[in-house]
User: What shape does this take?
Amino acid sequence: MDLGFYSESGELQDRDELFELLQQLDIPYVKVEIYRDLARRKESPIGDMCDSFESLVNGLLADTSILKRNSAAGVLSHFYRLIKEELTLASSLFNDEERAEGISRRIKESSEKLKGNDEQGDRHPIPEVWLEAFDEQNESDQK
Assistant: This one.
């Protein structure tokens, strides 16, 4: 998917040029940064999803800001409500006891690795207060 905008000459500009233009026009915009994806942004499903999100939100923001289109503001508002609903659904699906125990186990495993690295002077361990907080949360979730 080629995302960007077309210049007056008809050439497709890349997303960095689009952000530069939005900044020059003093228009609010969203820029999603991706971390630890091994694929290049244009070849990655994560990059494609983020580019689609940026394109939708920035296009609606620009239409609302520049052209004062109420329909764009309405779609942006609908998109916001849809995201909130999806977050609620995801929260209810993933906030279960098994997941909480898995997260706690992964934190403990990571902490043990970090403790080993810290003895070598490479990293700092996770403070016990954080580990205890996760244990307390898991215990309260199980009740």
Summary: The chain has five helices and two strands. Strands lie at 5-6, 12-13.
